[in-house]
Amino acid sequence: MSSEANLLPLIIEPEQLAEQLHEPSLLIIDVPLRAESYTEGHVPGAVFLDKARLMRGSGEVPCLEPTVEQLSALFSELGLTRDTHVVAYDDEGGGWAGRLLWTLELIGHTRYSYLNGGIHAWRQDGLAVSTEPSEPTPGEYEAEILHPEAAIDRIELTERLGKRGFAIWDARSPAEYRGEKGENRQLGHIPGAVNMEWTRAMDPERGLRIRDYAELITELEALGLTPDMEVATHCQSHHRSGFTWLVGRALGFEKIRGYAGSWKEWGNRDDTPIET
Predict the structure, then answer these.
(1) Catalytic (active site) residue 235
(2) Which class for 224: exposed (0-12), middle (13-18), buried (19 or more C-beta within 10 A)?
(3) DSSP, res 242
C-alpha cells in the first residue's frame, strides 16, 4: 500500500478521495439505503454493497451482526485483504456506511474511512459520478471477531445499566424514545438512555456532512455523554446508530460500542426494563 492511502483519516472529504481514486489499495464501497442510488451515479470505481448483507437476516433478532461464515463470504466477494483501505459511503448521511465500518472494526480491519456526507457531499462539490457498475475482485477472506468490544449485547447492557461511567445514546426519533411511536411489543427506551436523533449530527447545508465537532461535543456533554465514558449506542436495528457510532469515533469517544440487537430485540422481550 502506498504511504498516502495509509494516511487517510477516519473522516475524509470528497476532494481528498477524488485525489486518491486510482490508488490500487483503496476499496470504495457504496452501501445505499436506496439501491437505485448506485445506478443513478456513484463515486467512480465504487462497488455496490446490499445493506442487507450487514445483518444476520434470520432468527428472532435479524439485525444482529452477521455470523463469521456470512462475514467471510461477504468480504471474500468484496476482495478485502489485510492491506485494503476501505472507504465507505451511502446516500443518507452515514447510517449504512457507519454500520459497515463498525462491522470492519468488529473483525479487526481498522484501515477504513468514511466519505463525509456520502454521495450528497460528492455531488454538492461538483465531482464526477459514474453510472458504470464496478465489479470487485474476489479473494479468500476468513473473518474473525477480533474486536468484540466494539459491540455490546443485551446481557452485558443489562448488567451495565446505572453503572458509573457508562451511558446509552439512543439514536432514534424523540417520538420513539418517548414511547409514542414504534412497532414493538413494548415502546419507550432503555432506562437512563439519552436521546439525540442521528440526523441531528448531520449538516443539511453541507451535503449531510458531520456537523461542527465542537458544537456536537458541547451538545453531547449537555446530555451527559463525554468522550471519556463508555457509551453504548443503538436505534431500532443498529442502522441509524451505525452513524452515531461513527460520529462518536470521530469525536474521540474511544469506548463507544454498538448494540446490534437495538430496540428490535429490547422492545420485543418481557424481561427487559423500559422507561417512557
Answers:
(1) yes
(2) exposed
(3) H
Grid cell for residue 93? 448521511
Q: What is the pLDDT of residues 25-51, one digit of tens each?
A: 999 999 999 999 999 999 999 999 999
Task: Give the bridge partners for 234, in sequence order.
Answer: 170
- Quote the pTM value: 0.97
As annotated, the residues of the chain forming the CATH 3.40.250.10 domain(s) are 3-147, 151-266
Which of 168, 201, 235, 260 is flagged as catalytic? 235
Q: What is 3-147's CATH topology?
A: Oxidized Rhodanese; domain 1 (3.40.250)
Cα angle value 241/247/250 (rounded, 5°): 150
- Contacts of 15 by beta carbon, 8 Å cutoff, 6+ apart: 125, 127
* pLDDT tens by residue, 78-108: 999 999 999 999 999 999 999 999 999 999 9
Q: Contact 87/8 with Cβ under 8 angstroms?
A: yes
Cβ–Cβ under 8 Å, residues 107 and 55: no
Polymer length in residues for the chain? 276
CATH class for domain 151-266? alpha beta
